[in-house]
UniProtKB/TrEMBL annotation:
The chain crosses the membrane at residues 389-407. Residues 23-347 form the FAD/NAD(P)-binding domain. It comes from Rhodococcus rhodnii LMG 5362. It catalyses: a quinone + NADH + H(+) = a quinol + NAD(+). It is an enzyme of class 1 (oxidoreductase). This is NADH:ubiquinone reductase (non-electrogenic). Keywords: FAD, Flavoprotein, Membrane, NAD, Oxidoreductase, Transmembrane, Transmembrane helix. The lineage of its organism: Bacteria, Bacillati, Actinomycetota, Actinomycetes, Mycobacteriales. PANTHER family: EXTERNAL NADH-UBIQUINONE OXIDOREDUCTASE 1, MITOCHONDRIAL-RELATED, NADH DEHYDROGENASE. GO terms for molecular function: NADH dehydrogenase (quinone) (non-electrogenic) activity. Belongs to the NADH dehydrogenase family. Residues 435-454 are annotated as: Disordered. InterPro entries: FAD/NAD-bd_sf, FAD/NAD-binding_dom, NDH-2. Its EC number is 1.6.5.9.
Length: 454
């Protein structure tokens, strides 16, 4: 359970602003939250959207920020700008830390103070975060890909490895710097593994004259017996073959048992346990609900699954409260996939319920428009019911669908231009970094030479 004191650092907190009210409080700024907000905005219903970030993140394209294809600005426009055209919209930066469903009140922290807002309906859409399956210490030695900061940190790490490998005279160190391990062969893991190899072949091989593409090692580790397990069959097999043709070493039926500063320890039925040396380990093996799901579960009596996701009612209400809804990755309803189309459809459904266009208690039904995943340049997979596509047709379909959901004409235009430069040319328009002003070893010496404070 979250404690409000954890967020303001004061054991004796006082409410510093009078309680205000609105018709609907929306928590989050992802696909589900925005779908709800737009529907309510069009109807002129007053709502307050509270999020701990100022942007709406198009998470499926985060890997392209991490590999220098796109900048964060193209995939994370300000939420305020998106909702500015709705007079009934009120967007606030803050973190929701508590809810009292009996009195219909939400507490959120903003500018160091706890504020309270009353509502008629509450919509929770706070998404999910990385799960390490009980090994939370893995977070300190791996890179994740859930936020803009994650993507930019990973991009700097990848570029740092190439830059240092280009200048080091130590062969063993060079090999370690050019070794990448991706844990988890879901869409994010497959996309990242494929793009790091694309970087090596189409950018690094030309831009770094002392690095050959074959020097770059990318291993994709998966505990299941196939990549992209939800697709299965020939689509999973196609993806595996496409990755291997591109130079990715796919390691299946293998589990990570430990991770340290120098790589991962893995265990399989056939090869036993071994250590894989790598400078960069990227974790994309699982997700769990964000903290607010736990708050809602405790306050409403709603059950959760092993990942902390709310086991919502068929009409997307939470526990026994008809005016509290939860949608998207923080929920589990009929094992629907944690994908943006599900969240958007749920968001629109909840908005229609609040507006009275759908009768209260009506069960949500998901219309599956299909699934898709990109493997690497010119290779992707698409599944729409019984129709399965692979190769360049699936790749073009993937590009078209994703550029459609990029917010704003300018962002779409820049995205398309960046794709031309990266996929048809050999450029990575956003693959850059700035070296620290003082090298790490010199900074440590400076710290040692400073006199201790009296």
């Amino acid at each position: 359970m979250l404690d409000r004191r954890d967020f303001v650092g004061n054991a004796e907190m006082e409410q510093t602003a009078p309680v205000d009210t609105t018709d609907v409080v929306i928590v989050g700024s992802g696909f589900g939250a925005l779908a709800t907000a737009k529907k309510l905005g069009k109807a002129g219903v007053p709502f307050v959207l509270i999020s701990d970030t100022t942007e709406h993140l198009f998470q499926p394209l985060l890997y392209q920020v991490a590999t220098g294809i796109l900048s964060a600005a193209e995939i994370a426009p300000p939420t305020r700008s998106i909702l500015a055209k709705y007079d009934s919209a009120d967007v606030r930066l803050g973190r929701v830390v508590d809810v009292r469903p009996e009195t219909r009140e939400v507490d959120y922290v903003a500018d160091g103070a706890v504020r309270t807002i009353g509502y008629k309906s509450l919509v929770a859409a706070t998404g999910a975060r990385q799960s390490y399956f009980g090994n939370d210490h893995f977070a300190k030695v791996t890179f994740a890909l859930k936020t803009v900061d994650d993507a930019e940190n990973l991009r700097r790490q990848i570029l740092r490895c190439f830059e240092q490998a280009d200048t080091t005279l130590d062969a063993d160190r060079r090999k370690e710097l050019l070794s990448f391990v991706v844990v988890g062969a879901g869409p994010t893991g497959v996309e990242l593994a494929g793009q790091i190899r694309e970087l090596a072949q189409r950018y690094v091989d030309q831009a770094f004259h002392r690095i050959d593409a074959d020097d770059v090692s990318v291993k994709l580790i998966e505990g299941a017996d196939k990549v992209l397990p939800p697709f299965g069959g020939k689509l999973s097999e196609y993806s595996k073959n496409a990755l291997e043709k591109n130079g990715v070493e796919v390691v299946l039926d293998t589990f990570v048992t430990d991770i340290d500063d120098h790589g991962v320890t893995v265990k399989s039925k056939t090869d036993g346990e071994k250590h894989i040396t790598a400078e960069t380990v990227i974790w994309s093996a699982g997700v769990q609900a964000n903290d607010f799901a736990g708050v809602l579960a405790e306050r409403t009596g709603c059950a959760t699954d092993r990942a902390g996701r709310l086991l919502v009612n068929p009409d997307l209400t939470v526990g026994g409260f008809a005016d509290v809804f939860a949608i998207g990755d923080m929920t589990n309803l009929d094992n629907l996939p944690g994908q943006s189309p599900v969240a958007m459809q749920e968001g629109r459904f909840v908005a229609k319920t609040i507006l009275g266009k759908i009768q209260r208690g009506t069960a949500f039904e998901y219309f599956d428009k299909g699934s898709m995943a990109i493997v690497n340049r010119f290779r992707a997979i698409t599944k729409v019911r019984s129709i399965e596509l692979t190769g360049i047709i699936a790749w073009l379909t993937w590009l078209a669908v994703h550029v459609y959901y990029v917010v704003g004409f300018r962002n779409r235009a820049v995205t398309i231009l960046s794709w031309f430069e990266s996929f048809l040319g050999h450029q990575r328009p956003h693959f850059h970094m700035q070296q620290d002003e003082t090298p790490l070893h010199l900074r440590s010496q400076e710290d040692e030479s400073r006199p201790e404070a009296a």
